Amino acid sequence: MEKRAGIQSFEKFKYINTINALADGDITKWDIILNMPYERVLTKLLLNKTEAEYQKRYGDISREP
Question: Which domain of life does the protein's organism represent (predicted)?
């Protein structure tokens, strides 16, 4: 579904997609994110991934009969 919607059009922005997501779309926060220690940013990305996986599993379970 994402491909049909055109997700590939974001590929040209490369890592900026991640910076923008971490900054909640606020361009004034990009430099703050870019200047953070790598370990902190990686930890946040892993946390986001874990939360998304949990939410998907929870949603799947809640739709079970």
Answer: Bacteria
**What number of residues does the chain have?**
65
Report the sign of the C-alpha dihedral through residues 41, 47, 51, 54, in that order: positive
Confidence (pTM): 0.79
Distances from the Cα of 42 to the Cα of 1, 48, 52, 64, angstroms: 27, 10, 15, 33
Query: Domain span at residue 46?
Result: 36-65
Q: pLDDT for 5-24, tens place per residue?
A: 898 999 999 999 999 999 99
Does 26 share its domain with 40?
no
Does residue 64 sit in the same domain as residue 48? yes
Q: Look up residue 42 and give its amino acid.
A: L
